Amino acid sequence: MNADDPTAPALDPQRLADLRRRVADLLPDVLTDLADLARIPSVSAPSFDPAPVAASAERVAELLAGAGANVQVVRAGDGHPAVIGRVDGPPGSPTVLLYAHHDVQPPGSDDDWDSPPFEPTRRGDRFFGRGVADDKAGVMAHVAALRVFEGRPPVNVIVFVEGEEEAGSRSLPALLAEHHDALACDALVIADSGNWDIGTPALTTTLRGNVRVEVTVRTLDHGLHSGMFGGVVPDAITAMCRLLATLHDERGEVAVAGLTARDDTAVDYDEARVRAESGVLEGVDLLGSGSYTSRLWTKPALTVIGIDAPSVDQAANLLTPSCRAKVSMRIAPDQDPQAALAALTEHLQTNAPWGAQVEVGGPDVGSGVTTTTDGPYVAAARAAFADAWQRQPVDMGIGGSIPFIAQFAEAFPQATILVTGVEDPDTRAHGANESLHVPEFERVALAEAVLLERIGELGSNAGTAS
């Protein structure tokens, strides 16, 4: 599919040039506003102060109102605030909902950053700081698209900016139910993914689901001197290590029975690129089998993401009585997350070494997603990407999870879901030195404006929610 494909809406070359020029003119102010928004430490994790998340929502509301939207800040129960904005297009035009989130991940240790995480810093083509990409750049891409049209977009535009995506979107179902009519749309653009590479745009068509659990292993009712009882009585840390080791086979394949997988070979992703983009150390083997895209997008993966045990500095010569770990499992896009949770729980409980007691709790699950690759809105998106990048987009998967997409799909089954984003392979979302590639961001903003223009060219025949 390309900009000249007969199934894509026509776009006058002069109009495209005007949109390109308009985005370029707006970019400096958009970046300034992005920096101001990213200075707000809107971490939505439960252990952090909620006040900055509220401040972030208010700033997003100001930005949307300044771009011509009618805005309201909403929340469900004790959830973090979200923002809904609307700008009406011509009567009878389709309705496009633009999604992003304004909350961010915890920054981790400042020592791991080359510049302060909440003081956005430009170095070359990249903008560094927590949230500058994930996902406040998504917010600003929507703001930029609205500014392009100066309050008169070619379609009805709804902007929904969530405030707790990084904390599991727990109040999202209630928000979707309460504001269902206000959010009804024909196309839904979710700006929380990425592109295939710098200079190569992509539509994300599959995302893995996720299952997280906390595992507690107990072997004693109290700690024991490791010299007095070591060699006879098992300690919980060693038992935990042996239990966790059963989750993979010797090749690194997930060894939990009952999980689904499928092959994906549509895009070439070779070992050299995997190693370069991941930063895996020399001599370290890569896990699993099959194509690398299958391993990353459509097969299960399992990671131990935390262990509670005495620290090395505080450790005593003791047989530790209990140990707790958090296990994160990514599942194939079409895997039932409840079935995957049951399979993981059974594996952990039946593989306890030495009769150790195992408790599995704190489950958190989310569904994977497979989006449509056909239809007029998908054609418009492909053509818009080709216009913005002067290169054809690719369809790609994401190994990560965005469970709320399934919630939107359930709430608005008639809407075409388009998963886009601002990230690139070196964005390092969730990690230290998260960054945004500024020239790519400019193309993202242009593509979104062109997409709205192209959907407007489709007219009311393509939409029903306006």
TrEMBL record:
Q: What does the entry give for GO biological process? A: proteolysis
Per UniProt, residues of the Peptidase M20 dimerisation domain are 207-355
Does the keyword field hold Zinc? no
Q: Name the source's superkingdom.
A: Bacteria
GO terms for molecular function, please? metal ion binding; peptidase activity
What Pfam families does this protein's entry cite? M20_dimer, Peptidase_M20
Q: Which InterPro entries does the record match to this protein? A: Cyt/Met_Dipeptidase, Peptidase_M20, Peptidase_M20_dimer
- UniProt KW keywords: Hydrolase, Metal-binding, Protease
Could you tell me which SUPFAM superfamilies the record lists for this protein? Zn-dependent exopeptidases (SSF53187)
Q: What is this protein called?
A: Putative dipeptidase
Q: Which organism is it from?
A: Kineosphaera limosa NBRC 100340
